[in-house]
Amino acid sequence: MPEPRLLAIQHEVRQHFGWAYEEDVSSASSLRDACNHHPEAERLNWTAPQRARTLKRLQEAIANAQTVVLVGAGVHAETMNREWDTGTVFIAADGAVGACMGRVDVLCVVSDLDGEPHLSKAAQHGIPLLIHGHGDNVEAWKRCLHQWASAGGVPLVLTHQSDEVYNDMHNVGGFTDGDRAACFLAWLGVKSEKIRYVGFASDHVGPWSGTTDPARKLAKLVWMEQILCLLDPAWETRRIDMK
């Protein structure tokens, strides 16, 4: 379980933006059902046991890595062309996977499904996706599941942001894709010293962000920074120059 503060802040975010808790619960539950009860769930790699195996593989790869680089939407693609130390693995936040494709191998993508067309390209390459259900993205996850099912499936892990407890869907903490990726690592027990950040900024909307309202996105990024500080007060010292 995440630290209680990382869960409590989710309620604060909902209150701040005026979002309904019940809608988050409904979306998460429906997303879970859509995967578990899909008529071709096993072929698509979407059953609960298959998702558990995907999570285990990710956990093992992260545990064996020397460094985990989280790639946020503010990344400049040329940054990813630098020389990376052996034993580095990369986790992309939503559309930031587009900056990684053809430059580094991405272990997984953390997404609430507004980072198209980059997410679909990642799915085509079989990159595992940690997809998130919340009250405002029901149509997005329905569209993506349909598209991915038609294309043959993709390894999934499911996340949510409610107090409900499921054995096959996880609240790892966090709010935006970027800080949720960091919360995911903390949830797995990864030490802060092992993590590096590239493309994380709270003062502008990154070029790899999905379609969004810029003003609202900036407000969300303030919460992202607050969550990252809760996880690791020294997180900014672990940033990699974005240029």
Topology:
Blueprint: H1 4-17, H2 21-36, H3 41-44, H4 48-64, E1 67-71, E2 88-93, H5 97-100, E3 106-111, H6 118-124, E4 129-133, H7 138-151, E5 156-160, H8 177-187, E6 195-198, H9 214-231
Helix pairs in contact: 1-9, 2-7, 8-9
Structure description:
- 43% of the residues lie in helices and 13% in strands.
- It has helices at residues 4-17, 21-36, 41-44, 48-64, 97-100, 118-124, 138-151, 177-187, 214-231; strands at residues 67-71, 88-93, 106-111, 129-133, 156-160, 195-198.
- A 6-stranded parallel beta sheet has the order 5-4-3-2-1-6, sandwiched between helices.
- Helix 5 (97-100) links the parallel strand 2 and strand 3.
- Helix 1 (4-17) runs antiparallel to helix 9 (214-231), helix 2 (21-36) packs parallel to helix 7 (138-151) and helix 8 packs parallel to helix 9.
- The longest helix is centred in the C-terminal third of the chain and has 18 residues, at 214-231.
- The protein starts with a helix and ends in a 12-residue tail after the last helix.
Mean pLDDT: 92
Compressed to H and E, one letter per element, the order equals HHHHEEHEHEHEHEH
Number of domains: 1
- Give the count of helical stretches: 9
CATH class: Alpha Beta
What kind of sheet is the major sheet?
Answer: 6 strands, parallel
CATH-scheme architecture? Alpha-Beta Complex
The name of the CATH topology is sialyltransferase cstii, chain A
Structural class: alpha/beta
Q: What's the β-strand tally?
A: 6
What attributes characterize this protein structure?
243 residues; sialyltransferase cstii, chain A; alpha/beta; 13% strand
